[in-house]
């Protein structure tokens, strides 16, 4: 079954899903964030079919989320490394993991993040201007500079 394309939707979430919305993709990014770079290591860790892994890695490279760098000549083999664009997905993967820790596990978090201070930490939203902690009730939406007439937020008031 072919999924719908969001390419014509004037929404940054929809456009992001065009790149990372397939379920294996964020698992590949997760492993890359933890230092995995080699095709065979992704394949083994994830148990993903090689053709599917190839397609997902090609998409990530095509969209500048990862680079493909040869590390061996005969046969040619590659490291897949996150770019700045790919490393920026850390907060997305972390938020999804924290959501899963809260809502999908019975025995607690399978993985904990520790800060260099040594304590277990979570990522929480704070306003980039005033520094206050942000709750959903604190948010308002308005059309941004890239909004078009078909923007899904047009007419929304929260």
Automatic annotation (TrEMBL):
InterPro entries: HTH_HxlR (IPR002577), WH-like_DNA-bd_sf (IPR036388), WH_DNA-bd_sf (IPR036390). Residues 11-108 form the HTH hxlR-type domain. It comes from the Bacteria. It holds the Pfam family HxlR. GO terms for molecular function: DNA binding. Keywords: DNA-binding, Transcription, Transcription regulation. This is HxlR family transcriptional regulator. It comes from Gordonia alkanivorans CGMCC 6845. The lineage of its organism: Bacteria, Bacillati, Actinomycetota, Actinomycetes, Mycobacteriales.
């Amino acid at each position: 079954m072919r999924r719908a394309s969001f390419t014509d939707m004037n929404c940054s979430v929809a456009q992001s899903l065009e790149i990372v919305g397939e379920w294996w993709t964020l698992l590949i990014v997760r492993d890359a964030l933890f230092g995995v770079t080699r095709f065979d290591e992704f394949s083994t860790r994830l148990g993903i079919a090689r053709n599917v892994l190839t397609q997902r890695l090609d998409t990530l490279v095509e969209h500048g989320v990862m680079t493909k760098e040869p590390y061996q000549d005969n046969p040619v083999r590659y490291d897949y490394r996150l770019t700045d664009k790919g490393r920026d997905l850390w907060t997305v993967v972390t938020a999804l993991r924290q959501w899963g820790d809260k809502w999908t596990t019975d025995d607690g978090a399978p993985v904990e993040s520790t800060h260099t201070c040594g304590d277990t930490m979570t990522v929480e939203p704070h306003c980039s201007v005033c520094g206050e902690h942000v709750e959903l009730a604190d948010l308002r939406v308005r059309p941004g500079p890239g909004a078009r007439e078909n923007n899904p937020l047009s007419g929304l008031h929260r």
